[in-house]
């Protein structure tokens, strides 16, 4: 894997840790603006719980990506990066379709780029 691929992979991991922070700890105004959701919706207790739960998953994914880069190398790391990027692509495609088109550019496009670069 090239240095560029590793840097972009790390950035995607950090990005998901950022999603976790917003989903779990940001206020409803920030969440509504960031995720293009109505303020009235993200202010509801059930929506707050759902966002916090989603934040746990994003945090776990971000941590897995970063820790994998520290723990593994060679073909094992390459396989894990490809697996994680496929997962991020699937989630990004679904989120872009169901929530906001912005997710295509923030999540799907970078993961697709890393997956493609991982073959060079």
Q: Which tags fit this structure?
A:
120 residues; mainly alpha; elongated
Layout of secondary structure:
Elements: H1 3-25, H2 28-35, H3 39-42, H4 45-71, H5 74-98, H6 102-117
Helix pairs in contact: 1-4, 1-6, 4-5, 5-6
Short account of what is shown:
By secondary structure, the protein is mainly α. It has helices at 3-25, 28-35, 39-42, 45-71, 74-98, 102-117.
Describe this structure in words.
The chain has 120 residues and is mostly helical. It has one domain. The protein contains six helices and no strands. It is elongated and about 45 Å long. The termini are close together. The model has no long low-confidence stretch (mean pLDDT 97).
| Percent range for β-strand residues | under 5%
Outline = elongated
Number of domains: 1
Number of helices: 6
Given helix and strand content, the structural type is mainly alpha
Instruction: Give the N-terminus to C-terminus distance in angstroms.
Output: 7 Å
Low-pLDDT parts are none
Tell me the Rg in angstroms.
15 Å
Largest sheet: none
Average per-residue pLDDT, rounded, comes to 97
What is the string of helix and strand elements?
Answer: HHHHHH
Share of helix among residues?
over 70%
Number of strands: 0
């Amino acid at each position: 894997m090239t240095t560029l691929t590793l840097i972009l992979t790390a950035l995607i991991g950090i990005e998901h840790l950022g999603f976790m922070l917003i989903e779990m700890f940001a206020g409803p105004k920030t969440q509504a603006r960031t995720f293009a959701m109505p303020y009235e919706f993200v202010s509801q207790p059930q929506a707050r719980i759902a966002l916090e739960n989603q934040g746990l998953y994003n945090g776990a994914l971000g941590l897995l990506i970063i820790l994998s880069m520290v723990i593994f190398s060679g073909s094992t790391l390459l396989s894990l990066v490809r697996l994680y990027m496929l997962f991020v692509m699937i989630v990004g495609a679904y989120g872009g379709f169901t929530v906001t088109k912005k997710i295509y550019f923030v999540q799907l496009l970078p993961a697709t780029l890393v997956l493609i670069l991982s073959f060079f």
